[in-house]
Amino acid sequence: RKFVKDFLLVAGISLGILGLFNIVVDPYRTFDLVNSPALDACKSSRGGRIAKAEQLRRGPWDGVILGNSRVDAGMDPANPAWGGKRVFNCGLTGLNFIEEAKVFEFLETVTHPKTVVLCMDFFHFQDGAGVAEEFNFSRFNFDRGATAHYLDALWGITPTWHSILTLHNYFGNKSRDYSELGLRLRPMAAPGECGRKAFEGYVAHAAETWRRQGPWSNNIRCMQQFEHTLRLAARHHTKVIVLMLPVHALDLEMI
After folding, report:
1. Helix 2-25 and helix 146-155, axial crossing angle in degrees, nearest 10
2. pTM value?
3. What's residue 217's pLDDT?
4. Could you report the per-residue pLDDT of 3-16, keeping only the tens digit for each?
5. pLDDT averaged over the chain?
6. Where are the beta strands (DSSP E) in the chain?
């Protein structure tokens, strides 16, 4: 009996310390109780789906730029062209339109921006594509309740790892990966992967990948989702600007 009591006591204290640790570091800003710009700057995790969903729901945002990694690393929400409006970069790596439509619905339901810049590329519409695994653990997933989000943020393995990584970056004086408005600052190209030779190799690999995949057509589900997205925007009087981004930030870095 004493062993059980001691075990429960130690387990309770350990869980309490772990929960407090994740609340203070708060890698995704789930709790947003500790205001530390220096610590926030060291959060590599704030470029992911979980963190960006948390930032979006805290608003208010005049505009949101929504798209894949072309947006994440290529469109600056702090650019003077926005006219001083509060704009957030919701660029998400590997985003396809199936997932983008779900994120747009989150924006219309939770964030209510006045303008959404909906960014796509030529390979965006794929009916067979699914959502990223991280999407299911983010606020973008309406099927997951708030309690599950908070419990995972307190004691989950991945949030704890990101808390440890944040402190490692903080004490190691690592430069920022993302701005406070969601723009990726860290170069996408790895060291030594720049220049003409690297770029030509990158293009050749991409061309071979597209050749094997073949042309995409008859993606009816995506087009239906696109129609639903535009109707949803019209219903909420949200201005939608649709952009096709033919060039990736990585291409520009490698040239």
Report:
1. 100
2. 0.92
3. 64
4. 888 889 999 999 99
5. 91
6. 63-67, 87-91, 115-120, 239-244
227 or 207, greater pLDDT: 227
**Token code pair at residue 207:** 């061309």
Rounded to whole angstroms, the Cα distance separating 169 from 176 reads 9
pLDDT in tens, 66-79: 999 999 999 999 99
- Spatial CA neighbour of 176 closest among 47, 75, 80, 50: 47
- The bridge status of strand 87-91 relative to strand 63-67 is parallel
Residue closest to 69 by CA, chosen among 105, 96, 104? 96
What's the rounded mean pLDDT across residues 107-113?
Answer: 94
DSSP 180-219: TTS-B-S-SSPTT--SHHHHHHHHHHHHHHHHHH------
CA distance 14 to 8: 10
Give the length of the chain: 255
Cα–Cα distance measured from residue 168 to residue 74, given in angstroms and rounded to the nearest whole number: 27
